[in-house]
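chain below, 371 aa
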Amino acid sequence: MTRIVIAGGGVSGLSLAAHLAVTDHRHPVVVVDDASKPLGDMTWASWSDRPGLLDAAASRWFERVRVHVNGRTTVLPLGRYRYRVVRGDDLLAVVRRYTDSLRHFTFHHGHVDRVEDDGVIVDGRHMRAKWVFDSVVGPAEQPPADAALSFRGWQVHSERAAFDVETPTLFDFRTPQGHGASFVYVLPVDAHHALVEHTSFIAPGAPQDVAAQREALAEYLADVVGTGGHDVEREEHAVLPLRSAQSPRRNGNALTIGVEAGMMKASTGFAYQRIQRDSAAIAESLRRHGDPFHLPASPSRFRMFDGVLLDVIRREPAQLEQAFGALFRFRTAEPALRFLDEATSVTQEWRLFAGMPAAPYLTAARHRLAR
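prediction:
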């Protein structure tokens, strides 16, 4: 029987395993992971307007978000959308509910050295496979990054009951803008605990300014949140390349998945829901066509939109706040979230863009089209 190997047991590997498990096939599936990135340390947030296979993994659901843009704080209902939080251990537990009862699903502890056309090399040994889904090694060459997303997050304990338990802050621009277009994101756990994250769009290859990020977080907690004092229980940070161009995915019988496949949206840094849709499409392609390559293509204009936005804010960082203000100027966040989900019509997009200054975006678009 055909063996399927999933290289990597993170969010993309586990999500694909669950979708394969509920698809009508009996090919042996092996998930290979070396546990170098503990799932217990990972949390993902996303929005969705429909039920999903792994909804049971969500530990929190929100019906509204707070935004502070252009000097104004607004709490916006999400319309048909819901904002959810998924922790790594919960995701694994839900995925195992689908896979543990299936004898043809196995989890193998090992390090994927490289991906080949007929399988993978795991700890120096060849594991043969008909199809390989790679979230670890990635393509030999990636498109150049348009920008980078630099974030530093603190899990904090506040002395005061300072956090709104029912409302995450999607973005708040009350933070210094001297190191690129920046905002603060707040994900509450309870009234005294939250993840508070400082996010900046910076030039590709630029280093993180650790001291400036920590100072910005401390100022935000003291002056905006009003914690009355806080303890940092844990810190997380990363610099993620943002690419508007499509990453190459297929190499023979291997298909790249997850962030390595370009599932992280360049204009937002969100990936979880895109990974769910891609996982469902791969499983459906295998069921209907016998291969994983019949996947729907997103309209190319959305990659153009992402690239143009990154070009503009790299040159004029203040444009990010204006862009977010235009997208989230309606009575609910639904129009903006639908656009960021790449599910809008051209007419809807023109309505959203009407609140944005045309000149910098038209200039950036002309430069891109002339390349």
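The CA atoms of residues 116 and 300 lie 30 Å apart. The chain is about 30% helix and 30% strand.
thats it, cya
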